[in-house]
Design a protein that fits this description.
Strands 1, 2, 3, 4, 5, 6, 7, 8 and 9 form a nine-stranded mixed beta sheet that branches. The protein is globular, with a radius of gyration of 21 Å. The two termini are 34 Å apart. The chain is 46% helix and 17% strand. The protein contains twelve helices and nine strands. By secondary structure, the chain is of the alpha/beta class.
Length: 322
């Protein structure tokens, strides 16, 4: 599947993805020059399944904390050490399925635009109607087309650009893709979202507790991103942290502390339904408005997790929701 100077290597990362991993591996057959699967301690036979599908396997050392960033870097190193390293690297999560037209479209765009480091397309949920949480995630994936500030876990990247900035930050437990994009843009590269179908994703979110953990993880990522790159002019993660703390911590604490003076302070909590009303009227999606507002509570918890760990000098482990 070589294309002269624009060969593509695929790096798939996963942990106990079962049938989802098999779909992922099947979807990239014949579309790339090399396929690498990086496993983070699976116990479901994922390693043997990847070998059977012809992928090169990397098993991460279980004595060190697993992170998606660490896994992607391991796959990237194996590609870079090959006698003929690919010019482009497609990263894809093991719970996703590649769409057949994506790699040709992404490669053509990168060939025509040498200053672009990363391209991504439309990631869709496989079962958006299975739960309200899946539908919300599918909406989250629908980002604006054109030049953008960041990408997600599925993206086609230029090897040269990745090596220039040192790849992903392996210490991050979440938010590693936007953080990488901050460094790429600082180095003069650009990021683009194309109007092309890229991957199908299987979030498999059916419980409120899963949704809560996912938003808590997002809050942690916002806080750590702001700690790394929150200074001007980037201000990475600052707006999200302020919003999470204002709605998820400041408002309820102010209402409860005001009880020492007057029970009327509880009226401050009406700010939440007022926010839902404002967002619902503006967007016409009441479920999105409700969960976007409620999500500030676990996001604030994630922000607190990050800073409490930093004060204690202890790094937070993965926040897994599946």
């Amino acid at each position: 599947m070589n294309s002269s100077d624009m060969a593509i290597g695929v790096v798939i990362i996963g942990r106990n993805e079962g049938p989802r991993l098999l779909r992922c591996l099947d979807s990239v057959k014949g579309l790339a020059d090399q396929v690498i699967y990086v496993d983070s301690g699976s116990t479901d036979g994922s390693q043997d399944a990847a070998r059977a599908q012809g992928a090169r396997l990397v098993e991460l050392d279980r004595d060190r904390p697993f992170t998606a960033a660490r896994a992607r870097n391991a796959g990237l190193r194996l590609l870079a050490d090959h006698r003929s390293p690919p010019a482009l690297v497609q990263f894809i999560d093991g719970d996703c399925e590649m769409q057949p037209g994506w790699l040709p479209a992404g490669r053509a765009f990168l060939r025509a635009n040498p200053g672009v480091a990363v391209v991504c397309g439309r990631r869709r949920e496989r079962f958006p109607d299975a739960s309200v949480y899946n539908r919300l995630i599918d909406r989250e994936w629908d980002t604006p087309v054109g030049e953008t500030r960041a990408c997600g876990g599925d993206a086609l990247m230029r090897m040269e650009a990745l090596q220039e900035v040192g790849g992903f930050n392996p210490a991050l437990i979440a938010g590693e893709e936007p953080e990488l994009c901050v460094r790429l843009r600082a180095a003069g590269w650009t990021i683009w979202r194309l109007d092309e179908e890229m991957t199908l994703h299987d979030a498999a979110l059916s419980r409120f507790s899963q949704w809560w953990k996912r938003n808590r993880r997002a809050g942690h990522a916002y806080a750590e991103g702001a700690a790394l790159h929150g200074a001007p002019p980037e201000r990475h993660g600052v707006r999200q942290v302020r919003s999470a703390l204002a709605w998820g911590a400041g408002l309820p604490l102010l209402a409860l502390s005001g009880l020492a003076l007057t029970p009327w302070s509880l009226l401050l909590l009406l700010g939440w339904p007022a926010q839902v009303l404002r967002l619902g009227l503006r967007e016409g999606d009441w479920a999105h408005a409700f969960f976007l507002t409620l999500g500030k509570l676990p996001e604030a918890q994630g922000v607190a997790d990050y800073w409490w760990g930093r004060v204690r000098g202890a790094r937070r482990g993965l926040i897994e929701y599946k």
